[in-house]
Design a protein that fits this description.
Length: 113
């Protein structure tokens, strides 16, 4: 074996999606070799620990709005009237969803591609 500075090899198995993502990121990097690209990722790359609680809250709020809209629609179809209280409730829930969404987006890291 040649006198190498890098003496450790690594075998990595990827599925088709992972291989596609690797190929695209490598291509976008403009680097000359895939091995250099992978070494660069190992040394300088980031791993994000994502807290999905806000996304869960967001989805819960969306489900509540959907349920409320269904109830309001049933009531409208049954009575032929739209109540101000129902409209106010939907508006409040929508405001909560927008606040949650803005909060989630403001916390996302900027990833240059």
């Amino acid at each position: 074996m040649a006198d190498r500075t890098r003496k450790h090899s690594l075998v990595l198995y990827l599925n088709d999606d992972e291989k596609y993502i690797l190929d695209e990121k490598y291509r976008l990097s403009g680097m000359r070799s895939r091995m250099s690209f992978l070494r660069h990722l190992i040394v300088y790359g980031y791993v994000y620990d994502v807290d999905y609680q806000e996304l869960h809250d967001y989805n819960t709020n969306l489900a509540r709005i959907g349920n409320n809209l269904n109830q309001i629609t049933r009531r409208m179809n049954a009575t032929g009237h739209l109540y101000d209280e129902d409209v106010k409730e939907v508006k409040e829930l929508m405001e909560e969803v927008w606040r949650t969404q803005k909060s989630m987006l403001s916390k996302q890291p900027y990833i240059k591609q």
